Structures are given as structure tokens and as C-alpha cells.
Amino acid sequence: DQQVKQNSPSLSVQEGRISILNCDYTNSMFDYFLWYKKYPAEGPTFLISISSIKDKNEDGRFTVFLNKSAKHLSLHIVPSQPGDSAVYFCAASGGAGDYKLSFGAGTTVTVRA
Amino acid sequence: GAVVSQHPSWVICKSGTSVKIECRSLDFQATTMFWYRQFPKQSLMLMATSNEGSKATYEQGVEKDKFLINHASLTLSTLTVTSAHPEDSSFYICSARRGGGGYEQYFGPGTRLTVT
């Protein structure tokens, strides 16, 4: 049973514009959320995270928004750059010492020049 | 910081043989390491969680006797695929969590296993 869902398998965006990636979750026990970026045949790279006590976290071009009541989070990348073309995974942890991560299926982002 | 390496990056083996994959945290101590498997165009599937000095905890459906995990030190975990079969061919990725750190896991580059 997929507890973390990324319903958009792909996203195409023009260079310089904003990329918005969405993620929904079903487990109300999830307490900590992370975004990872992955290139083919490589391991995921940690991008940004957010605790459930916050609704926004920003790091450079990346901002993650959390709407706990809707069980929804999003990643904004602005401005999008060609190097951002990759697969982005949303992940969630149960918190309280549960360090396992549940991953979404991923969204492939293509940044067009 | 937070660099994780994996070795080998790819391996081809014959059916029935065993393969060992190493995962090392290079610049931090990892109290917990995780092993994942990724099928083409799919998400990462957690196979097991290992804490240094204790037995690994396997996810439901993962055969512990087939996928042997050893977390011998704070910087090294190994995954041994025993009696490999073609259906074990996959991309195996490890991750590590810093001791005393948060929930972030830092991933290795992955190992492509092909069983012929």
C-alpha cells in the first residue's frame, strides 16, 4: 500500500520558470518529510526536508511547503535550471525514532532550454 | 560532508553464486544503515534496516537468508546476495543516517547487479 504518492510521473518546465512538484501522503503518523533528487544509475541526493511542526522551509532555490491538514506537500524550484532535470522523490518518516523512509514513485522533471 | 560510497558500482555474476556489496560512510559515523532495491522506473523499496552491532531488521517479503546484511562497524555495512538468480538482478542502493542526526538519509551511488 503506497503511503506516499506522487501522482504526476513527469513535469516539463522552461528554464527560468518555477517547477512545482506535489506529494500526498495517507499516514497521519508521518512526522518528517524529505525531498531527494536522483539521476539515472546514481543514488538519490538529499535536497531539503521539513518537520511537521513547520509549514515552510526554504533553502536557496528550493522551498518545501507542508499542508498537514490536507496531507500534502510540495517542492518549488525557482528558477529552474537545466541541471535540475532529474527524478525527484518525496519521502516521509514516522518520526519519534522511526527512521525508515517511505518513498513516493518519483516525478521526472525535464527543464527545457 | 555526508558522503556514502558503495562497492562495486556494478557486478555481473552467474546464477547460483553469491555477491557481496559494501556500503561505507566516508566522513561520518552511521549508527543506522539501510538497504534499498530499485526496479526500473519504480521507487526505492526498503529491504532492511541495520544498526551497528545488531541484527538487521528486514521488511516484509524480504528473505533474510537470501539477503545477508552485516553492519560490522559505524562506517561499514555489507549486503550479500546468496545463491543469486536472474530475478535478483536489480539496482541496490544503501543509505546511512548520522549518529545523533535527524531523519535525513545519505545515499550511496548504487550497485547494478546482473545475474546471468
Outline the low-pLDDT stretches of chain A: none
How would you characterize the largest beta sheet of chain B? 7 strands, mixed
Ends of chain A: how far apart?
Answer: 38 Å
State the order of secondary-structure elements of chain B, H for helix, E for strand.
EEEEEEEEEEE
The coarse overall form of chain B would be globular
Structural class assignment of chain A: mainly beta
Classify the helix fraction of chain B into a percent range: under 10%
Round the mean pLDDT of chain A to the nearest integer and report it. Answer: 94
Residue share in helix of chain A: under 10%
Low-confidence stretches of chain B: none
Rg for CA atoms of chain A: 13 Å
Based on secondary structure, the structural category of chain B is: mainly beta
State the order of secondary-structure elements of chain A, H for helix, E for strand: EEEEEEEEEEE
Mean pLDDT of chain B: 92
Task: Give a brief outline of the structure.
The complex is a heterodimer of chains A (113) and B (116). Chain A has 113 residues and is mainly beta.
What this model shows, in words?
The complex is a heterodimer of chains A (113) and B (116). By secondary structure, chain A is mainly β. Chain A has strands spanning 4-5, 10-14, 19-25, 32-38, 45-51, 56-59, 62-67, 72-77, 86-95, 98-103, 107-112. In chain A, strands 2, 4, 5, 9, 10 and 11 form a 6-stranded mixed sheet that branches. Chain A has a 5-stranded antiparallel sheet with strand order 1-3-8-7-6, with no helix packed on it. The N and C termini of chain A lie far apart (38 Å). The model of chain A has no long low-confidence stretch (mean pLDDT 94). With 116 residues, chain B is mainly β. Helices cover 0% and strands 54% of the residues of chain B. In chain B, the strands form 2 sheets. In chain B, strands 2, 4, 5, 6, 9, 10 and 11 form a 7-stranded mixed sheet that branches. In chain B, strands 1-3-8-7 form a 4-stranded antiparallel sheet, with no helix packed on it. In chain B, strand 5 (44-51) and strand 6 form a beta hairpin. Chain B is globular. The N and C termini of chain B lie far apart (37 Å). Chain A binds chain B through residues 32, 34, 36, 41-46, 49, 89, 93, 95, 99-106, and chain B through 2, 4, 6, 32, 34, 42-44, 46, 49, 91, 93, 95, 97, 102-110, 112.
